Amino acid sequence: MTTIKPIMARHHEYCDRLFADAEQAANQQDWNACRQLLQHFAEAMEAHFQAEEEELFPAFERVTGTQAGPTEVMRQEHLQIRQLIASLADAAAAASDVDFFGVGDTLVVFMEQHNRKEEGILYPMCDDRIGDSEQLIKRLQLFVGA
Predict the structure, then answer these.
(1) Does pTM surpass 0.85?
(2) 96: closest CA among 31, 41, 38?
(3) Rg (CA), the chain
């Protein structure tokens, strides 16, 4: 049986690789490539957030009866990550390696912490509590391409 955690964790890894590619381009001062790669990263992250915010979190909230728990924390962190990605895009547009790598370092640490919470706590809780999640998994896969 397919579960939620491996699908979403694989997409975390995919997003991490996209960001690493953008960082590599910035490191080489190839700002055109960096901007393109960063756009791919931003789109993948947004697809991931939408999968969670539109499908996974509401399903979890329905079965647990709460919206003030871990899903609310994750939504707030998504907002912060979106803001960091916007700042990265600004830095790439300005071809500012100092700003790009400063924001990038913050983003990496924040995403690592965020992903650990989701993979270590929230996704296993979802797998445990949502129960028959075959339809939910199919909908998540539409967002994240897994």
Answers:
(1) yes
(2) 31
(3) 16
